[in-house]
Write a structure and sequence with these properties.
Radius of gyration of chain B: 20 Å
Order of helices and strands of chain A: HHHHHHHHH
Largest sheet of chain A: none
Strand order of the largest sheet of chain B: 12-11-10-9-8-7-13
Largest sheet of chain B: 7 strands, antiparallel
Strand content of chain B: 15-25%
Oligomer: heterodimer
Radius of gyration of chain A: 16 Å
Distance between the termini of chain B: 22 Å
Distance between the termini of chain A: 35 Å
Number of helices of chain A: 9
Number of strands of chain B: 13
Number of helices of chain B: 9
């Protein structure tokens, strides 16, 4: 995946990738591509930072700084979505599920069709004690995914998703 | 055949015919307050009977996803099928009125613990033809909620990747040998988990893991007070020598093992092979030859099966296969 990013930000990305031990430019998998979701972020983070909250928080700070810096062209916009997804996985590992959820929502606003982020989003919903909503979503994921992508679903707030699902 | 069916004599009889007997010690461990929670599968038409049985023991049941076994186990037709390491099930929302389906349940002393375990205990079923794996860290969180020791959970994190590691072999490598003692403690023998006779339901980080031993001793002591016959037979089985090929792929012997340097010799009256049903490609073709023999010699390169000191067959040994005894 080729993404053109400002040189200064690129340096920070390379440093973060070295720190994490995996690449950040993962492919955007769409729901219709018939590929499984990409577990490289969540798996890689768990391997390196499980029970290492201090080191994980350092990674979160580095990723947050990059997100703040990214605000330029379309490519940076797209990469910002990826970074929010990474932050979603980081906060999920950290155990701050509300923040994780918030990051996944931000990611999906920027990269609506990223199926991997959708899966992370659903499990963050489950982890914030909304197991019933998670179940409704996972069994109707295609419908919700399409509704978000074509604008029928206006927001990813819990009430709006529940209202949409009621109408299915 | 070494393992026999078990019929509860005193405790937990209400679960017979409701929950699989294979998980009997886990029901007891939770009911007796030693284990925080456990998960299992129950036929939906037995769900109400399970709730009733659990109430008698002060246990709460939390239903999770329901599933049915698809007609075909062809992983190539499933999105994400290449990562499936076990048999897979087709998932659907829980419906108490379903007839032929099975439901994943979490059982604990309190509703709060059951619900917390359920949050991280998502079972990877197939939904609309695709797999949905939970975040890897949830396996570790779930393990802790099921009462697994931290060291074993962390070991699982590093080594439970079937594409790269043979977990039991890594456990063996992580086991310190003690002069004059068997290789492992029977308290750390997990091979019969899901086959009725076990005290632990996790993969230990070592066959002498102190945390596992401490925990298993509590389980054993608690069950012994209410169902002593079960403990007596389980101890006998857990002290039996094994030939281990991988997770859920092993031969258990009714016999004794001696070790001389790098050579292990098992002399036995009977044996029983357990293969991993989800990994048919790993099935040991020579296991039937073991049944005919009464001695197995394992060295670094070869497994030799003998009957009355006559060689039946010699097999090349993979590095990760090992013989182990327990005390």
């Amino acid at each position: 995946m080729i993404i053109m990013i400002d040189v200064k930000i690129e340096k920070k990305i390379v440093m973060l990738e070295k720190y994490l031990g995996f690449e950040l430019r993962r492919e955007i998998i769409t729901f219709g591509s018939n590929e499984p979701h990409n577990e490289s972020f969540s798996y890689g983070l768990a391997l390196k930072f499980y029970n290492e909250n201090k080191a994980l928080m350092k990674a979160i700070m580095m990723a947050t700084e990059i997100v703040k810096d990214l605000d330029g062209n379309d490519d940076e916009h797209l990469f910002r979505g990826l970074m929010f997804c990474l932050l979603g996985d980081m906060y999920y590992l950290y155990g701050d599920f509300n923040r994780s959820l918030g990051c996944f929502i931000q990611s999906l606003k920027l990269s609506k069709n990223d199926y991997t982020t959708w899966v992370g989003f659903m499990f963050a919903i489950r982890a914030t004690d909304n197991i019933e909503l998670f179940e409704k979503m996972i069994f109707n994921l295609g419908r919700i995914y399409d509704a978000w992508n074509d604008g029928e679903l206006k927001s990813l707030e819990r009430n709006d998703i529940e209202d949409f699902l009621e109408g299915i | 055949m070494i393992l026999r069916e078990y019929e509860p004599k005193h405790y937990g009889k209400e679960f017979r015919g409701v929950l699989s007997i294979r998980q009997y010690p886990m029901v007891l461990a939770v009911a007796l307050g030693v284990k925080t929670s456990f998960d299992d599968w129950v036929k939906v038409d037995k769900y109400d009977a399970l709730v009733e049985a659990c109430e008698k023991y002060g246990l709460h049941v939390e239903p999770d996803v329901m599933f049915t076994t698809p007609e075909s186990q062809d992983k190539s037709k499933i999105i994400g099928g290449e990562n499936i390491t076990t048999t897979f099930q087709k998932g659907m929302p829980f419906d108490k009125n379903a007839k032929d389906e099975t439901v994943h349940v979490i059982i604990a002393k309190s509703p709060e613990v059951a619900r917390k375990s359920k949050k991280f205990g998502w079972y990877s079923v197939i939904i609309n033809n695709r797999t949905f794996n939970k975040p890897f860290v949830d396996h570790l969180r779930f393990g802790k909620l099921l009462g697994f020791p931290d060291c074993c959970v962390d070991f699982f994190r590093k080594y439970n990747n079937w594409h790269v590691y043979n977990h039991p072999y890594e456990t063996l490598k992580n086991t310190k040998r003690i002069e004059g003692k068997a290789i492992g403690s029977y308290y750390c023998n997990n091979v019969l988990m899901d086959n009725i006779y076990f005290f632990i339901h996790h993969l230990p980080c070592s066959y002498r893991c102190e945390a596992t031993i401490e925990y298993a001793k509590k389980v054993e002591a608690a069950i012994e007070k209410v169902e002593p016959e079960f403990v007596e037979y389980t101890k006998k089985l857990l002290k039996s020598p094994l030939l281990n090929f991988g997770e859920k792929n092993f031969i258990i012997f009714d016999g004794e093992m001696t070790i001389d340097g790098n050579v292990s010799t098992i002399e036995y009256k009977d044996s029983q092979y357990f293969s991993n049903y989800a990994r048919k490609e790993a099935k040991m073709k020579f296991a039937s030859e073991v049944e005919k023999g009464n001695k197995v010699i394992v060295d670094e390169n070869t497994i030799t099966i003998l009957k009355d000191d006559e060689i039946i067959v010699e097999v090349s040994k993979e590095e990760e296969w090992f013989a182990i005894n327990f005390d």
